[in-house]
Design a protein that fits this description.
Strands 5-6-4-7 form a four-stranded antiparallel β-sheet. Helix content is about 45%, strand content about 20%. Helix 1 (about 10-20) crosses helix 4 and helix 2 crosses helix 3. Strand 2 and strand 3 form a beta hairpin. By secondary structure, it is an alpha+beta fold. It has two domains: about 10-95, Arc Repressor Mutant, subunit A (Orthogonal Bundle), CATH 1.10.10.10; about 100-185, Alpha-Beta Plaits (2-Layer Sandwich), CATH 3.30.70.240. The protein is elongated.
Length: about 190
């Protein structure tokens, strides 16, 4: 985890993603300079100013109830993400989500159809924008096509946008689709 962080980096994002990667952090000891100990032991920041900034960020994240410090009783303390912290990590991971494109296409089309209630309008709009940014082809307003596997990404998007995948989203594979030649050109197949 010992990375050096330069100016302009998002310290909150880096801190939360580091904790999320490990799951939970266990640090020995508790002292008045506890946050500095965590910054030094776990993040291994070498620059003094960076350790101070990280310690301030840890205190801020605890105050905002994004991370939680639990004493284990044997002099060690466990640092973990709260529900709110896990939601933030999902949003940070949302920025980096991409479809895996295989070297050879398997000949199957993945069709995604959805009907999200109007009470979740913002989620529906965000879901549609993310499908477009993932490179799916819009056949109709709520029907999207991809030649590549995308079920894991759909499940992740539904979790992030709090959409019930079992009720609102239909995903299936097929060999034939309407306007196939047009869609093939779009994907350069």
């Amino acid at each position: 985890m010992g990375r050096s962080f330069g100016r302009g980096k998002n310290l909150t994002k880096d801190t939360l993603l580091a904790i999320a990667t490990v799951g939970a952090v266990i640090i020995a000891g508790s002292s008045p300079r506890f946050y500095h100990s965590v910054a030094r032991q776990f993040f291994k920041d070498k620059i003094r100013e960076m350790r101070r900034a990280r310690a301030r960020k840890l205190a801020e994240l605890e105050k905002k109830k994004v991370i939680l410090f639990r004493e284990l009783g044997d002099g060690r303390v466990r640092v973990e993400l709260t529900h709110r912290g896990k939601s933030l990590v999902r949003l940070y991971n949302l920025e980096n989500i991409k479809l895996t494109i295989p070297k050879k296409w398997d000949g199957l089309w993945r069709v995604v159809m959805y009907d999200i209630p109007s009470s979740q309008r913002r989620a529906s709009d965000a879901f549609r924008k993310k499908l477009r940014s993932l490179g799916l082809y819009q056949l109709q307003r709520s029907v999207w096509i991809s030649p590549y596997e995308c079920l894991a990404e759909l499940e992740f998007l539904c979790a992030v946008f709090e959409i019930d995948i079992n009720i609102c989203v239909c995903y299936f594979k097929t060999r034939e689709i309407p306007r196939e030649s047009e869609i093939r050109k779009s994907f350069r197949l």
